[in-house]
Structure formats: C-alpha cells, structure tokens
Amino acid sequence: MAILKMKKLRLMVVRSRKDELLKELVRHGCVEFSEIEDQIQGSEVEGVLSREDAKLMALRTRQNALTHGIETLNKYAPAKTKLLSAKPEVESDELISQKGIDAALKISEAITEADDKIKRIAAEESRQRGIIESLKPWLELDMPLETEGTQRASVIIGSVPAKVNLSDMESALGAVTEEAELFTVSKDKAQSYVLVVCAKESLTEIQECLRGFSFTAAAFSGMKGTARECTLQAQEALKELASEKESCAEQIRGESVHREDLKLACDRMSTSLAIAEADDKLYGTESVLIMEGWVPEANEKEVAEIFDKFDCAWETRDPEEDEYPEVPVKLKNNKVTNALNMVTNMYSLPAYGTVDANPLMAPFFILFYGLMMADMGYGILMIIAALVAMAKIKPREGSLAFCQLLLYAGISTFIMGALTGGLFGDAPYQIVHMINPDSTWEGLPALFSPVSDSQMVLYGAMVLGVIHLNFGMIISFVQKKKHGDLIGGLLEEGSLWVILVGGILLGLNALGVVESAGIAMAGKVVLIVGAVLLLVGAGRGSKGIFGKIGAAFGCIYNTLTGWFGDILSYSRIMALMLAGGVVAQVFNSIAVMPVQGSGVNVLSVIAFLLIFLIGHALNFGLNLLGCFVHDLRLQCLEFFGKFYTDGGKAFKPLAVRSTYVRAKED
Q1: CB count, 10 Å around CB of 384?
Q2: For residues 577 and 413, what is the distance between their CA atoms, to the nearest angstrom?
C-alpha cells in the first residue's frame, strides 16, 4: 500500500449554486478545501474578491447548545443502551438536512433553563442549610433573634473561644458595671455561645471588655423569631425547594422522549458546521466564488462529474515539490495494513512524497506482539473480543483499526503460545496434577520455552532485531536511490552492510562454526573496507580537514553505540515473553495451593477458580498494554529511525460529521 497521490484543485462556481455544490461534495467526502487568504492579500484581486461570511460563531453556539442539552438530559435521564451496540445508521441526506434543528434547539433551551433553575435552587438550599447549621448553638435561646434590648437595657449575642474561662469573663463584666449579666446558651469543642445583658449607658465599656476575651458578635441579619422558629422556617423552605427541584428534574426527564431527535439534530448541526467551515475559506464577487483545495487522484473522475453537473470552471494539477509540506496525506490500506493506522496516527503520519510505513511495519508489529504475549489462552481471548466487537459495534475508521489490530495480534499470540506450549501459563499441567497428583504428564508440547530456553530466546530476539533494522535500511536505500542519491545510499547503508558481512565472517570463525584462517582474513578485510566506506560517507558533507576528522569520529561513536543500543533494545521481546509466562505460572501455583492442602472439594475448587481468574485477568491486562507499548517503541524508535520521514498532515475532506449516528455506507 502507499500514500495516495493528491491533486491541487482550483474551482470557480456561480454563487447561486454554491450551497448545492457544497452539499454534494459532503455526500462524496473527497475534497479538502484550503485557506487562500495569503494568496489574496497583496495581489491584484485583493480589492475585487471578498471573503465569505459563514457565520461560524452563530453555528458553533447552536451546536454547543444542542450538545449541552443532550449531556444534561443524559445526566438526569441516562439512556439505556445494549452492551456493545452499534450507532444507528441514517442516510447521508438525513444528516445534510436542516429539518428539526430549530425544534431541537427549543427543547435543548428548555432543558438548559430547567437545569439552570436547579442550580439556582441548589445554591439556595446550601444557604438554607447554612442557616440551620449556624442556628444550632442558639436553639435553646428562647428569645427573638432580632431583639437588641429594651428602653434601658442592651442585649449582646455572640461567642468566645472554648478555652476562655466564663467565670473570669463574668467577673470582668462585673468590674465594668454591676448592671451586666452573662448567660451561657450552649457550648461545643470550639466555642462557648453566650448572651450578655447590660445597661444601655454601659454598652460601649461592655463591648470593649468583651473584645478582650476574643468575643465575636453573632449575625442574624434578616431573621425574625427565635432560633428554633427560624430553623423551622428554613426546614420548610428546604422542603419547598426540594419539591421545586424535583419538578424541574422531572421536566428534564420528560424530554427524554426527544433524545434521538436531539442527537440527530446535533449531528445535522455538526455537518452544517463542516459546510460553513468550508464556506468560510471561499472568496468571490457578487456572482462568482473561487476556492482551492486537494483531491485524491483516484477521485478525480468522481469530482469531475460533480463539477460538470454544476457548470463549474475547474482544474487540477500535480503539486510542486515545494508544496509537499502543505499536501494532505491519505493512506491507501487493505484489511491488514489498516490495522496499523492507529500506530502511525499515534506517532505521526508520513510526509507526502515519502513512504507509507504501514505495510512495511505490519508483519513485524504483529509478529513481535505475538512473541511478547505468547499464550494460546490470551490469544483466544483477544480473538473473541475483536470478533465480538466487530460484529456488534460494526466499527469504522479508528475503532475498526483497533479491532483489526487486536484480532491479528491475538492470532499471532495464539500461534506463538502454541510454539511455547503456553495456555494460561502452565494451566493444563497444573489442573491435571491437581486432579491426579501421581500423573506423569509433562504438559503441552513446546518447540521452545521462554523459561528453560531464555538464552536462546534472547539470541533469537536480537537476530530479529538485526533483520528488522536492516529491513529499515533497505527501505532507506531504495528511497535514496529513487531520489537520485545512490552514492549516499552506498556510502551510508551500503557501508554498514559490508561491515555486517565482515562481522558475520569473523563471528563464524570465532564461534568455531567455520574454522578457517582465510575466512578470518576475509572477514577482517571486508570489515576494514566497510569502515573506510562509512568514514568516507560521514565526511562527505563536512568542510576542511578538521571537519572531516570530527565527522569521522562522531560517525564511529554514533554507529557503535547506536547499533549496540538498538539491537539490545530487542531484548525486551524476551523479557516480556518471560515475564508474562512466569507471572502466569506463579498465579497457577498459588491457585492450586488450596487443593494441595485440603484435596479436591467445593471450597478448594472455588478458591482455585477465584485466584485463577483474578490472577490471569491482571496478567492479561498488564501484558495487553505492556506488549503494545514496547512493540510500539520498537517500531517508532528503532525501525522508523532508519527511514521514516514524519510530519504529514491528515487529509480532512468536507464530509458528513456525526457523533451519535452515522451515515450509511454505499
């Protein structure tokens, strides 16, 4: 598969047919419009052409209102949906239509108003609860809270810290005037709540005395009656507020019959917004509009028929090389390579004019994942999960890529599990010996075991790493040759291959596989030739003798450390295979302990099943994520580093947008 070839599109259309044209392009979803403001500014047509006013802000406000209405409705009346159910499908014309949007907006506004009222009620409820809480210390005070005194006496109500000695406080008040009395209303761990009655003419001196005991006057603003009466009033207010709040909530829940209408209207609004965003990029006069964009070469005939139907003036051309950074990227995939789209999307799309990594990466990613997971039981679970999700949800685009990747990785995991004899670790062996401790069965057959053959697995992982990295170098060499840099490919990738051949010859002789002085000498000669080629390539772009020497030393250091680190990085394949297998065996051993201790009975079997299921669920979940992350690292850092040019901009055509429903496929 490859990056689809794009064509630069220029188009002129009569203003009266613009809306129809845009709607038709939405149906086909194969044209991306680009901004042309920079081309208009400073040109001869700057005063002639004006930008279209698409009223984007108003449309976004309407869409946000619908979205908020749906979210609010779901909060008060959650939708009951089937597990793993697919989104409803509608015709494309249904999503392009404006029908029902205004009615849905009125419903959404009613829902929002009711929700806002509930929020105001909640704020008032908090205030009333605060009043009740603040009055608790004064419930025993049988005096209206608004009382300030009589004709001759003043009343002061407040609190002092609990650590204050009230007897000392009373004595201090008595020293100010004999016409003062202190009453204790209540106490808690933090405060003492008191009431002071004094003669009016002594009020100022009494207040000054109280200040010395950290006295804080109580505030009962707006309250009338005793604390108990005010508390009852607040409680009654809470009941009324709760009733009003429930009435508003019931009003919102009553709108749940319009939930699907709201969702459809919201998706219609999203599509309208997509059209408006394209419209906002257009420039024109009173009668004609011009636009630019991109269309895949494969869709050129399709759009030609559309433009001819609307009597448009248009042309397409191949993009110039200096335009490549602006050219959007669309990948052409089949069922296998589509699964790797989520990997390249997480990393970065390839730059236009370079190579699509998906078909090159797919076999390695799937193989490495299977090697890391390597368990038939886990593979079966992954396959079942992927097939069920694809059958029930009917995923598309990113969700489909995830399900496909899960399926292929599950198949690889099952195959590698069959080669290593892993079925939920050593579960078959443990179960057989749990039932019959005298059994001589040694477990499932295995070609190799990550536990007993870990050294061989490590060497195998590094060999796979060498193959993987060299494959990336081959791609890089082909790319350089394609762009006319054959010498660069020979001096850079070619020199490393010569060094590799020399290293293999020396290694075969050193290990005794081929004992020959001639082989050893040939290996040394080839190694030296490769090193010279590498140094020549490194100094090719440097100026001056010191520049070339510096480049040579840098090349030697980077090549030795880079290749050593890259190849060593593939040891994670062995590490994850070993870790997953050992953890599975540990959980199996723990699970059979109750049976070994008390024999096979109902309780021991239940204990076995619980430990087995919980343990393998944890191991499966950790390995599912861990293997993906480490496999992703091998591809994105080691493999991509040899040839990949990132920075591609995704192709985003004018098309139907939807969140809650989806357009039927032709």
Answers
A1: 12
A2: 11
What single string gives the DSSP state of each residue in 157-177?
EEEEETTS-HHHHHHHHHHH-
Q: Distance between CA 612 and CA 618 in Å, rounded?
A: 10
Q: Are 533 and 491 in contact (CB under 8 A)?
A: yes
Q: What is the pLDDT of residues 106-126, one digit of tens each?
A: 999 999 999 999 999 999 999
Segment 432-478, tens digit of pLDDT: 988 888 888 888 998 888 888 888 999 899 999 989 998 998 988 88
The partner residues of 296 in beta bridges, in order of sequence, read 6
Classified as helix, coil or strand, 283 is: strand
Cα 526 to Cα 142, 345, 462, 486, 532, distances in angstroms = 107, 41, 23, 21, 10
DSSP at 255: G
Query: Cα 221 from chain centroid?
Result: 51
- Residue type at position 536: V
Residues 396, 402, 405, 407, CA torsion sign: negative
Q: Is residue 664 over pLDDT 90?
A: no
* DSSP track, 182-208: EEEEEE-SSEEEEEEEEEGGGHHHHHH
Is the pLDDT confidence value at 332 over 80? Answer: yes
Closest CA to 271 of 665, 664, 662: 662
Pairing of strands 313-317, 32-34: unpaired
Strand partners, 289: 13, 284
- Is the Cβ–Cβ distance between 370 and 409 less than 8 Å? yes
Query: Which span out of 45-54, 142-151, 363-372, 647-656 was modeled with the highest average pLDDT?
Result: 363-372
The CA–CA distances, whole Å, from 395 to 301, 387, 519 equal 29, 11, 57
Return the SS3 of 315: strand
Per-residue tokens: 106: 């009125």
CA distance 588 to 428: 10
Buried b (16+ CB within 10 A) or exposed e, 201-221: ebbebbbebbeebebeebebe
- Cβ atoms within 10 Å of 613's Cβ, excluding its own: 12
Query: What does the alpha-carbon distance between residue 370 and residue 419 come to, in Å, rounded to a whole number?
Result: 11
Task: Classify burial at 236, counting beta carbons within 10 Å of its beta carbon; exposed 0-12, middle 13-18, buried 19 or more.
Answer: exposed
pTM over 0.85: no
- The percent of the chain in helix, strand and coil, each rounded to the nearest 5, is 65, 10, 25
Across 7-44, b (16+ Cβ under 10 Å) vs e yields: bbbebebeeeebeebbbbbbbbebbbbeebeeebeeee
What are the angstrom distances between the C-alpha of 307 and each of 9, 116, 290, 302, 319? 11, 49, 13, 9, 20
Distance in angstroms (rounded) separating the CA atoms of residues 417 and 581:
10
Strand duo 89-90 + 662-663: pairing:
parallel
